[in-house]
Amino acid sequence: MEKYLDAQPSLFTRNDLFTKSAVLVLAVVVALMGTGCSFQASGGSKSTVDKAPISSKKNLPTLKIGVLPARNPQDQEQMIKAFDAYLEKSLGRQVDFQVAKSYSEAVDWLVQEKVDIGYLGPSTYLRALDRGAKVEPLVAPIDRHTGQPWYRACIIVRVDSPIKTLKDLKGKRVAFVDKSSTSGYLMPLASLKKQGIEPGRDFARVLFAGNHSKSMAALEDGTVDAAAANISSYLKRQQSGKLTAKNSRIIWESAPIPQAPIVVSKKLPIELIKQLKQAFINTPDGIEDITGTESAGYTLVSPSDYAPIQQLRKDLNLISLPAQ
Fold first, then answer.
1. What string of DSSP letters covers 225-242?
2. What domains can you pick out in the chain, each with its CATH number?
3. Are 231 and 154 in contact (CB under 8 A)?
4. pTM here?
5. Where are the transmembrane segments (predicted)?
6. Between the CA of residue 151 and those of 55, 196, 233, 255, what are the distances in Å?
7. Residue 323 or 164, more confident
């Protein structure tokens, strides 16, 4: 795991496009070298990009955007409406959002070039690259609760549950999000393996719910004894009044994970990519990130930011990397 000490993520702040986010570097290193530990946010800010002129031409090609099914369809559609209108106005062209039925379908769209932009998780982005998608990360949301472009995975139980630690999950029913979900499966899986726990062998039932909302809903209705999600989704869920701080609690949380990237096709015109950067970075307050993250805007990201997640996938035998 010493390789992570050399990782050089390159997230930018809004005030200085060319300043690396040292906080994120350390956070990602910790996230992949051990279990969750406390991490102090230092108050992030959005990135800046050079302003690009917005084309006034008519009949421009429609921009197609694929989105992971991070939340229930009705909730996600409501979030999309406001951002769709904002993006069309900013770009001067029609924008069509499509919510995938699964993480795999979102990757398929990018590989088959059916969409121009994709909202992906860190691991899902890397899986898309593995399959030959010609994409690059553009921006990622800044978590409103941390003030930084990272987030944490967590495992939640009912407040009266006898489950206190990861080891107590043996023999229990556990819901995950998707096998490609970084926070909803891969990060919890890595920590479980360090405890000598294999979900397929040691759990009474393993449920892959499909999205974070459904994973937590399975805990609410008693289908499972514990549910994996991310803390941002958990806090968002509490607003519904079903899963609250009074009737549920977190038994485990990861160290910080680099925030989910929004990726773009490398075939898009350079001018349009600049316009997209400008539009995302200048997103008005009050417009929610459409994956459900309670965001405080967006920051620019680059492929190197996700190198530690690629190493995590190798450690979990999900890929085979060439020797360095």
1. SEEEEEHHHHHHHHTTTS
2. 63-149+259-316 (3.40.190.10), 153-255 (3.40.190.10)
3. yes
4. 0.73
5. 21-41
6. 35, 25, 10, 8
7. 164
